[in-house]
Amino acid sequence: MSRTHVLTTETIESYQSLGAVVLRGVFNAQEIQTLEQGIEHNLAHLSPLVQVASQADDPGRFIEDFCTWPSNPSYQSILLNSTLPHLAAQLMQSKTVRLYHDHLLVKEPGTQQATPWHQDQPYYNVSGRQNVSFWIPVDPVPLASTLRFVAQSHLGTWYMPRTFRDQQAKWFPEGSLAELPSIEDKPDEYKQLAWALEPGDCVAFQMLSLHASSGVGPERRRRVFSARYLGDDARHAVRRWVTSPPFTDLEKRLPDGAEMNDALFPKVWG
User: Which of 238, 257, 258 is nearest to 249 (CA)?
Assistant: First the structure.
């Protein structure tokens, strides 16, 4: 059974209205230690989905990996037994919660590679608005290298997903979705949210929230585990292209528009 952690009405309403909130101290020291062990195990046993997201001449290194929880007991403990399922149910205002996938993001000291502004859901194979991603660091994250969000950007527009390093449209066809606005050039129009974080904290955000982050300084790593969950209205959105992460042959088991009722996405609440 997962631990419970009751959120305030204000926190839930902020998530619903702004698209991102900070949650302080929701993981205890043992859970952070377990998660750190899981991250180091993941780094030592990278999956076929691993990506090096930094350039070859970057003085640091940005590693991403996906969907390794079935072979990582430490990840399983956090995803299934921590407060995450209960937090997800409250933030999504959903009776049920399914695990969608895990995502490792490690920027080694001195990594210059920024994570550009983007939304997550256009890269995925799910529709629906009841969803949540948790961005959980096991290292202190200063404001300069934390995740930043555009407030209320989750409320409607889908923006064109592109590859991070060369801006290629590998998902939706060119011209079929809106292009990203000039967020940094219009701070009054696109209000940003950002929080410095300590181990035990996390940020929660809706999968259409625009977000980005900078590189990291030379003094410390930034090891982050991201956990993603789906709620009552989530449905399989079959794509004509490879999603990120890919779920190969899932359409043979789940037709377009079906509930995400598959062993890949276990129900963890409700």
Answer: 238
Q: Report how far residue 232's alpha carbon sits from residue 132's, in angstroms, rounded to the nearest whole number.
A: 12
Antiparallel, parallel or unpaired: β 20-23 and 202-205: antiparallel
Q: What is the DSSP letter of 45?
A: S
H or E segment and range at residue 207: none
Dist. CA 4–CA 8, nearest whole Å: 13
Show the tokens assigned to 136: 């959980």
Chain-centroid distance, C-alpha 25: 19
**Average pLDDT in the 50-77 region?**
96
Instruction: Provide the whole-model pTM.
Output: 0.97
Domain ranges across the chain: 9-262
Tokens of 56: 């070859």
Question: Quick one: which H or E segment has residue 245?
Answer: none
Q: Is the confidence at residue 2, as pLDDT, over 90?
A: no
Cα-Cα-Cα-Cα dihedral sign, residues 247, 252, 256, 260? negative
pLDDT at 211: 98
Instruction: Please state which CATH number belongs to domain 9-262.
Output: 2.60.120.620
Assigned token pair, 1: 């059974």
Q: Residue 120 forms beta bridges with which residues?
A: none
Q: Give just the sign of the alpha carbon dihedral 95, 14, 201, 154.
A: positive
Instruction: Retrieve residue 30's tokens.
Output: 């043992």
Q: Is residue 87 exposed (0-12), middle (13-18) or buried (19+ Cβ within 10 Å)? A: buried
What is the Rg, in whole angstroms, of the alpha carbon atoms belonging to the chain?
17
